[in-house]
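Incident log, structure service

09:12 report received: a user says their structure output differs between two submissions of the same chain.
09:20 pulled the input from the user's history:
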Amino acid sequence: MARAIERIEQDIAALQEAIRAIAIELKSAYASYLNTLGLAVRKQLILASYHLCTQGYPENFLHLSLNQRQQLQQAIRKLGQLAAEQLLIYLKSEESGEDEVDEGDQMDEVDEVDEEVTSSSSSLFLDTSNSHYLTANTSDPIELAKWQQKLEEAAQDILKKLSHDANLLLQKAGVLPKKLPEPILAAAAAASEASAEVMPGPPNLLNLVIEIENEQQSEDSGLTQIMAINLRLGEIEFADVTLSSERKRIRSILVQLNKLGREYKKRYKEKAIAEAEAAWRASWFDD
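09:34 re-ran on a clean worker, output below:
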């Protein structure tokens, strides 16, 4: 026979309290992690851009004037700064209790850079109107897991958008080849779509060989080796000891959450069984 419903409910209440504590700890861990990630992303974007300009396409970079180089470097720094701010936007939205984030102040900063940077940087901003927010009293492990997954997806999306916008910026500046197809500028998963062979190379750079057809004379088509920025979360974490340590902390918290989640599910099933048994007894009568 199942345990008394009152005892089961007490166990569930205790689990909910533990899950609320885990929610607070997980949110705190992500706040620290995303802040560190923002700094690391800015650094890795600059390093990847440096490598691309000096070793990937040095001749193209040398063709730029001093002023053009400085404008390009400033624009790259601005992109990194915008991405770092965007990484915290989900947490800030929750703290303010708003479902939509005011992007006006951030976009004003972008206007200080030239128009090309403004147009490319604007795509970094995510639509947060349908995002999954974590309330202060979250005691449902499923809801907490959904929030965590949404946050991870947002971070990956920001890196992908940042890679694309940085490549577009470098192409407009004349560093990346003008004939570079749009799928390559999209970086990340575009390599396979472009039927390209990925080659080993520096971190956060996509180094590959791709076949580019001549629009007028297909017989002139040939294999071309290209390099583009492709920021990858795993490589960014690997290069930063602090970020790697904070990722380990998050994983440790998630292990605790999974354990509590299994126990939470078990107790709710036990409660359902106890209630069903009680309902059976309440409705049963002997002939």
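09:41 both user submissions now match this output. Likely a transient worker issue. Closing.
09:42 reviewer note: The chain has eleven helices and three strands. Strands lie at 197-199, 205-212, 222-229.
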